[in-house]
Each structure stands twice: as structure tokens, then as C-alpha cells.
Write a structure and sequence with these properties.
Blueprint: E1 2-7, H1 13-29, E2 34-39, H2 41-46, H3 48-63, H4 65-76, H5 89-102, E3 106-109, H6 113-121, E4 131-135, E5 153-155, H7 159-167, E6 175-176, E7 203-207, H8 215-223, E8 229-233, H9 238-250, E9 256-258, H10 264-270, E10 273-277, H11 280-288, E11 293-297, H12 304-312, E12 316-318, H13 322-350, H14 355-365
Parallel strand pairs: 1-2, 1-3, 3-4, 4-5, 5-6, 7-8, 7-10, 8-9, 10-11, 11-12
Helix pairs in contact: 1-14, 3-4, 8-9
Length: 366
């Protein structure tokens, strides 16, 4: 039986999304031949203080994005990270205990801190964690903290991102590009989407995960567009849900509101267009669902590459102002949805909906 340890952290939803996708892929492909454990050692070690740190991080990147961009660029300039994680001695103590107890054949990090902790912990015991695999969740703007560490393999969402590592000196034989490990549900062959039209509808999904204070205003403007059928996803934020429900009660045209939903793969695959933030998981899930995307917000540095990947593949656009978002939606469906059809063809060529299954087969082969 293959023992696979997956290490994640809640500092950005992309890490947890990747961990879930890989775990689901291993369950589907490996069955009883794989024993898989997923751990967020920061949460397990620090408890509520970790939650506070997470909220501070999210506040920083959303309220002061330029400050975070400076931190991000500073990290990218570092040549070595050895010794930078000594302060997390409690996490490393728990990490040691977990390795001794679980004895993994493969240790897979979807959050970069773990790789550097292993560098500090395992200098004399490099085999104690089995094969070391890093899953990189960002595209193009891949920070050095992801790859300036010891690892047997680096898994990337696309070849363009792998090139970043190759140019930094990572050997090609250490990189694999299976795609971002989205839920295996994206690989379901059932077709849920017809081309947009006046009769079949032009379905737009607005997934709110940033700029929540101004999001209800954009919802109001989108709901007023007669040419689309709108669905708004508000996650677990009760205050946001209340604000959007209030907009719906006064809207001239009806629209749907959903909370945190396990139905996101189905929603994306049945929508013609996604409006959302350029998070690593969000962009890759849209690509897996072959759903073109309008990016209305991105974190400087960290998420710029995700947005650029969409634009360079000609399957989406960036529109950070509300007027620009509304204009972009109109353009996508104008002239019998000519632009949407072009984007749809292009996004199909880069979609890898079975990435988690391919990654699972690779991990089981190690």
C-alpha cells in the first residue's frame, strides 16, 4: 500500500483546493491501494492564533495589495530560504511526529513553507519523508519560494509555468505538467452547456471572493442586463448573502443566489461566463470547465500570472472597474456571441479536467 502525505494550509483557497483534488483523485484511482492523509499543520499546531493570522493575511492582500506585492517581490528575490522557518519550531515538532508515525512513501506539499521546513529538518535524514513532491498552484508569476528547495518533482499547471522553473535552473526531468488538480468531477463527460443564444440563455456566474463591500453594486448592474441570466455565488459570508438578497428583492429582473456549494463544478460547466478574482484555483477550475472568464480583481504579483495566462491564451479578459466588467460582458455576447465562441474554442485547447487523476497515477507510480 502506498502511503501519501499531503500538506496544505488555509492561506489562500488554492492550496486547499489542490489538496482536495489530489485526495479525491487518489481515492478514485488508488482505492484501497493508497493510504492518504491530508494535514494543515499550521492549523493543527496553533489553532485559533492560526485563524487570526489567516485573517490578517487576507486583510493585507485585500486591503493593502500593493504592500503585499512588495513582500511577494522581496520573496522572489531570495536565493536561499534555509533558516527562514526556524520560528515554526512547534510546527516542525508536529511534522517530525507525523513523519515518524505515518512513514510516507511520498510527501506532497501544496503550500511552499513545508518544503523549506523539510530542508531544515531532514538534512541528515533525506529519505525519512519518502519522495518529495511540490504542487505549484500559480501560473506564470511563480515565486521563487515554490522551487528554491529540495524536491524530487515539481508539478505545474501548464508548460508556460514550467518554463519559469527551467529558466531558474530546475532540471526538466524534475518537472511535470499534468494541470491544476481540480476535482475529478470536472472530468465527467456529461455535456451541460449549450452555446449561448436568446432561446438557450446566456448564463453568467459571478463568484464573489473579493471586493465584497462593492460587490452588491456590481450584482445590481449585472442583474439589470436583459441579455444574460445571472447566478451569484456568495460563499459562507452571511453578511454578503444578506446584501445580495436585498439587491435581489429590488432587482428588475430575477437572478439566482447560491452559498458555499459543492456544486461549483456543475455551476461552472453549465455557465457560459465566469466573473471572479484571479485566484489560482478559481482560474484553473474555470479552465477545467471550459468556461471563459472575466477577471475583476487580482492580487498584484501573486495572481497577475493567472490573469495573464487567461489573456495570453485568448480565453478571457481583465476588467477591474465595474463599467469595464459590464462592457466586457456585453462584448462577449455581442454579434451572436462571436467573442465567446472564440474564447470557448481556445479554452478547450488548454483545459485539463482530469489533472487530479493523472497526478494520482503519477504519485502511485513513485
Amino acid at each position: 500500500m502506498k502511503r501519501i502525505l499531503i500538506l496544505t494550509a488555509a492561506f489562500g483557497e488554492g492550496h486547499n483546493s489542490a489538496a482536495r483534488g489530489i485526495r479525491q483523485g487518489l481515492a478514485q484511482v488508488g482505492g484501497r491501494d493508497a493510504r492518504v492523509e491530508v494535514h494543515d499543520l499550521f492549523s493543527e499546531t496553533y489553532g485559533p492564533p492560526n485563524d487570526w493570522a489567516r485573517e490578517m493575511y487576507l486583510g493585507l492582500i485585500n486591503q493593502w495589495p500593493q504592500a503585499w506585492a512588495r513582500v511577494y517581490r522581496w520573496l522572489d528575490r531570495q536565493e536561499k530560504f534555509a533558516g527562514s522557518f526556524k520560528v515554526f519550531f512547534s510546527v516542525k515538532k508536529e511534522f517530525h511526529r507525523l513523519l515518524e508515525e505515518f512513514q510516507p512513501d511520498v510527501t506532497l506539499a501544496v503550500y511552499p513553507a513545508y518544503s523549506h521546513m523539510l530542508d531544515e529538518m531532514l538534512t541528515q535524514r533525506a529519505r525519512a519523508c519518502g519522495k518529495r513532491v511540490v504542487v505549484i498552484t500559480d501560473s506564470l508569476s511563480v515565486n521563487a519560494i515554490w522551487y528554491r528547495c529540495a524536491a524530487d518533482y515539481f508539478l505545474l499547471p501548464n508548460e508556460a509555468s514550467a518554463t519559469v522553473l527551467h529558466q531558474a535552473g530546475i532540471p526538466r526531468e524534475k518537472t511535470r505538467t499534468f494541470g491544476f488538480p481540480v476535482s475529478p468531477e470536472f472530468a465527467d463527460e456529461e455535456v451541460l452547456r449549450s452555446p449561448p443564444s436568446a432561446t438557450e440563455g446566456r448564463h453568467v456566474l459571478y463568484l464573489i471572493n473579493a471586493r465584497k463591500s462593492t460587490a452588491p453594486e456590481l450584482v445590481h448592474r449585472l442583474a439589470a442586463m436583459p441579455e444574460i441570466q445571472l447566478t451569484v455565488a456568495v460563499g459562507r459570508d452571511r453578511r454578503l448573502r444578506k446584501a445580495v438578497d436585498n439587491v435581489r428583492s429590488f432587482a428588475a429582473r430575477p437572478f439566482d443566489v447560491v452559498g458555499w456549494s459543492e456544486e461549483l463544478p456543475r455551476l461552472l460547466r453549465s455557465s457560459h461566463l465566469l466573473i471572479s478574482k484571479a485566484g489560482g484555483a478559481t482560474v484553473q477550475e474555470a479552465i477545467a470547465a471550459t468556461c471563459p472568464m472575466i477577471v475583476n480583481h487580482m492580487i498584484p504579483g501573486q495572481e497577475e500570472g493567472n490573469a495573464r495566462y487567461l489573456v495570453e491564451a485568448n480565453c478571457g479578459a481583465v476588467a477591474t472597474m465595474q463599467d469595464a466588467v459590464v462592457d466586457a460582458v456585453r462584448s462577449v455576447f455581442a454579434n451572436d456571441a462571436a467573442l465567446w465562441r472564440e474564447w470557448s474554442r481556445n479554452i478547450t485547447t488548454i483545459s485539463r479536467p482530469a489533472a487530479s487523476l493523472d497526478i494520482a497515477r503519477f504519485l502511485l507510480s513513485l
